[in-house]
């Protein structure tokens, strides 16, 4: 079969889609989320309606958690933790936000009520220092806490109805971190158990069984995100200086090294129901760029080849993607953006998949011609 034919068909479909779009550069609508008058902003997560969370900052030590409305509109400080050094790390469909704030006793995981109302600080596992990262639409949460006497940090699970948390790690001397939780309650993260190297893990929905996802021969691995079918993303570490993004098939099986954009390092941070992956990767010159990838077509596409910022700025990382194909990305100019594929919303994910697929076709053609 002529290797150019699938690419021509993909290009034709993509052109047909784009020709029906309202005016929008590169097939995306970009929303600059703002900075609330601070030096910069960093987005860390978003929900199914495109509400974004993260933090604004003046320095690496002066962070204030923020949240936006649907579609990235109306950035505001999360008032219930506004008096603390804080970061918002996840948001669910009802507007409950999970994050971390520095309070009098140390860092503490917090969760808000629906529509970002109030805030509750979660319990710890023996020492008052913890961090909150993942939340699902049922209010199940995960993160990690130091155990008694700062002897180790352990991944935990909890719910939005109570400050109590459950230690997910049976080995008291183990080290583990929880980063993401899906609709069924499965939790993904990284764990070092029984003296073994740290490996990415995936639990069952009750958190009672921890499955070691391995490391593909790397020194260690860590999971940072997952979707509702149990596809997990994160990174593989090959020694102290080299890391590669990975993605798995359903239920954590079939780990795939996604490589880089020509440089040394990469990291995958989020995955949606369609298996679209986002994160960051280095180029040959060492600069860090946001990438898009797909579990169905291994390989990376530089987000900056699909959408462009003004004045020489570029996207350095993409931190989350939802099932509509909306993604949040942080840029070299210190600003955070919501990128919405057009047309909205039903065909947006299809368009994004088409853009990534077309880039993959181009790579295959280049190899065939070389």
In words, what does this structure look like?
The protein is mainly beta and 370 residues long. The protein has a single domain (36-322), classed as TolB, C-terminal domain (Neuraminidase, 6 Propeller), CATH 2.120.10. The protein is built from two helices and 28 strands. The chain has helices at residues 4-19, 348-369; strands spanning 28-32, 40-46, 52-59, 62-67, 76-77, 85-91, 97-103, 106-111, 120-121, 126-135, 140-147, 153-159, 165-167, 175-181, 187-192, 199-203, 210-212, 220-226, 232-238, 242-247, 256-259, 266-271, 276-282, 288-294, 297-302, 315-321, 327-331, 336-341. The protein has a four-stranded antiparallel β-sheet with strand order 1-28-27-26. A four-stranded antiparallel β-sheet has the order 2-3-4-5, with no helix packed on it. Helix 1 (4-19) runs antiparallel to helix 2.
Helical percentage: 10-25%
Principal-axis shape:
globular
What is the CATH architecture assignment?
6 Propeller
pLDDT < 50 runs, ≥5 residues: 1-24
Features:
single chain; 370 residues; mainly beta; Neuraminidase; four-stranded antiparallel sheet; 2 helices; 28 strands; 10% helix; globular; disordered N terminus
């Amino acid at each position: 079969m002529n290797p150019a034919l699938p690419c021509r068909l993909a290009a034709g479909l993509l052109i047909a889609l784009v020709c029906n779009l309202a005016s929008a550069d590169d097939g995306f609508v970009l929303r600059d989320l703002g900075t609330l008058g601070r030096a910069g902003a960093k987005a860390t997560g978003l929900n199914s309606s495109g509400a974004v969370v993260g933090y604004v900052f003046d320095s690496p030590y002066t962070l204030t958690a923020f949240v936006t409305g649907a579609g990235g509109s109306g950035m505001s400080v999360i008032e219930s933790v506004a008096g603390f050094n804080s970061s918002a790390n996840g948001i669910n469909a009802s507007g409950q936000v999970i994050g971390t704030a520095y309070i009098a006793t140390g860092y503490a995981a917090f969760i808000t009520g629906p529509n970002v109302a109030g805030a509750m600080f979660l319990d710890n596992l023996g020492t008052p220092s913890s961090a909150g990262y993942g939340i699902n639409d049922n209010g199940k949460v995960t993160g990690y806490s130091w155990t008694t006497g700062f002897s180790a940090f352990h991944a935990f699970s909890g719910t939005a109805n109570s400050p109590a948390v459950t230690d997910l790690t049976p080995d008291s001397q183990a080290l583990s971190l929880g980063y993401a939780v899906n609709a069924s309650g499965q939790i993904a993260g990284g764990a070092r158990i029984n003296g073994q190297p740290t490996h990415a893990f995936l639990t069952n929905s009750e958190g009672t069984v921890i499955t070691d996802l391995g490391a593909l021969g790397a020194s260690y691995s860590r999971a940072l995100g997952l979707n509702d079918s149990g596809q997990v993303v994160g990174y593989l570490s090959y020694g102290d200086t080299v890391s590669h993004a990975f993605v798995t098939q359903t239920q954590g099986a079939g780990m795939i090294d996604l490589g880089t954009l020509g440089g040394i390092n990469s990291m995958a941070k989020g995955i949606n129901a369609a298996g679209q992956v986002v994160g960051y990767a280095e180029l040959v010159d060492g600069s860090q760029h946001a990438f898009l990838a797909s579990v169905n077509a291994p390989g990376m596409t530089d987000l900056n080849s699909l959408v462009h910022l003004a004045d020489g700025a570029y996207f350095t990382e993409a931190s989350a993607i939802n099932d509509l194909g909306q993604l949040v990305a942080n840029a070299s100019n210190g600003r955070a953006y919501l990128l919405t594929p057009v047309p909205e919303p039903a065909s947006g994910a299809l368009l994004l998949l088409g853009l990534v697929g077309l880039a993959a076709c181009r790579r295959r053609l280049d190899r065939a011609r070389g």
